[in-house]
């Protein structure tokens, strides 16, 4: 049997090894874009190797995170658009890492599918590679698994894990937050990768097609809903290098208040002003279409704030300006006061 050919019995069971080999060839160029000099070749290909230059660090801590993109993959499949969902995956992983101040070093991915379609797998990996490029980390390895019978031929899901490094005495978090600190918001690119079970219910109950043109977006509904997650890792690291950052909060499932509260000590609150920003059009669109109340919207979606930073009040203006210079819209969202470890939203959006 030729190399890469599928044994007849395995092929009859629905697994195409040759298609998997073809997918690997198609994704190589995308993966090569992410290479960092610390990556070490492993001739067997069974593991990814990464040299940690300990001379650069005093007391390095490795940080790790793993995540997926939830049911957003179902919309990618329905809309037949597969080149952005990988960016979402990387954003969900590396922006959790950077919350503690860690620099993302490398990622691995896992794609499970009902049938390996090499071109589709390569599209997915192209997005993962793009996300890694934006984050400055290398895509060091991964796995594509064909699951006939468990998944339909057009179905797939993906997950990833990342590793970063931070100096032990530079770890960010609640222990650094002080009363009087300012909370800085960093704009999201849209829904990111959370709340899509509610999104799908709303659009399905409204009978909307993903190719329907929506005036509020100036684009098809599917294009808006599949807008890739903004990757904040490099922006956060750049901010922490220039400003005394005390904490970050990645605004994912649970919304702004719940995620920011995770970065506060028990004796302090973050009081946030809704009047400081206008949520992007996708949020009021979904709220009106699905008759979803404000409390549910804010407990499900990021509402336009994808990452928050807590900094000394005296450095808030500088932080906003630095992020703006990097092309990331940011603003002063609120302040830290005495309290019970909660984040509280006040006022109304403009």
TrEMBL record:
Catalytic activity: 2-formamido-N(1)-(5-O-phospho-beta-D-ribosyl)acetamidine + ATP = 5-amino-1-(5-phospho-beta-D-ribosyl)imidazole + ADP + phosphate + H(+)
EC number: 6.3.3.1
CDD domains: PurM (cd02196)
InterPro entries, per the entry: PurM-like_C_dom, PurM-like_C_sf, PurM-like_N, PurM-like_N_sf, PurM_cligase
A Gene Ontology term for the protein's cellular component: cytosol
Signal peptide: none
Alphabetic keyword roster: ATP-binding, Cytoplasm, Ligase, Nucleotide-binding, Purine biosynthesis
Residue span(s) of domain PurM-like N-terminal: 62-166
Pathway: Purine metabolism; IMP biosynthesis via de novo pathway; 5-amino-1-(5-phospho-D-ribosyl)imidazole from N(2)-formyl-N(1)-(5-phospho-D-ribosyl)glycinamide: step 2/2
NCBIfam families per the UniProt record, alphabetical: purM
Family of this protein: Belongs to the AIR synthase family.
Name this protein carries in UniProt: Phosphoribosylformylglycinamidine cyclo-ligase
Organism: Streptomonospora nanhaiensis
UniProt lineage: Bacteria, Bacillati, Actinomycetota, Actinomycetes, Streptosporangiales
């Amino acid at each position: 049997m030729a190399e890469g050919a599928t044994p007849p019995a395995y092929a009859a069971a629905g697994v195409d090894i040759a298609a998997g080999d073809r997918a690997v060839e198609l994704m190589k160029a995308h993966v090569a874009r992410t290479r960092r000099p610390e990556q070490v070749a492993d001739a067997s290909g069974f593991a990814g190797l990464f040299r940690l230059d300990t001379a650069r660090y005093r007391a390095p801590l490795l940080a790790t995170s793993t995540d997926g993109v939830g049911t957003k993959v179902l919309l990618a499949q329905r809309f037949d658009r597969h080149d952005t969902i990988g960016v979402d995956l990387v954003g969900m992983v590396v922006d959790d890492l950077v919350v503690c101040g860690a620099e993302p070093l490398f990622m691995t991915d896992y794609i499970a599918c009902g049938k390996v379609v090499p071109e589709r797998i390569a599209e997915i990996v192209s997005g993962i590679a793009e996300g890694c490029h934006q984050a400055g980390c290398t895509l060091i390895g991964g796995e594509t698994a064909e699951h006939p019978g468990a998944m339909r031929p057009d179905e797939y899901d993906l997950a990833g894990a990342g590793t970063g490094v931070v100096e032990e005495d530079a770890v960010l978090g609640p222990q650094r937050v002080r009363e009087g600190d300012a909370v800085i918001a960093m704009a999201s690119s849209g829904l990111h990768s959370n709340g899509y079970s509610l999104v799908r219910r709303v659009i399905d109950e409204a009978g909307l097609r993903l190719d329907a043109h929506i005036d509020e977006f100036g684009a098809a509904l599917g294009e808006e809903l599949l807008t890739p997650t903004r990757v904040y890792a490099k922006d956060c690291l750049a901010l922490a290098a220039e400003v005394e950052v005390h904490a970050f909060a990645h605004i994912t499932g649970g919304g702004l208040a719940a995620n920011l509260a995770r970065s506060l000590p028990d004796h302090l609150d973050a009081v946030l002003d809704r009047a400081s920003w206008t949520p992007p059009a996708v949020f009021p669109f979904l709220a009106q279409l699905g008759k979803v109340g404000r409390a549910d919207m804010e407990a499900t979606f990021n509402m336009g704030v994808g990452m928050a930073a807590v900094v000394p009040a005296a450095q808030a203006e500088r932080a906003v300006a630095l992020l703006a210079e990097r092309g990331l819209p940011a603003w002063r969202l609120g302040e830290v006061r005495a309290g019970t470890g909660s984040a509280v939203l006040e006022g109304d959006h403009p």
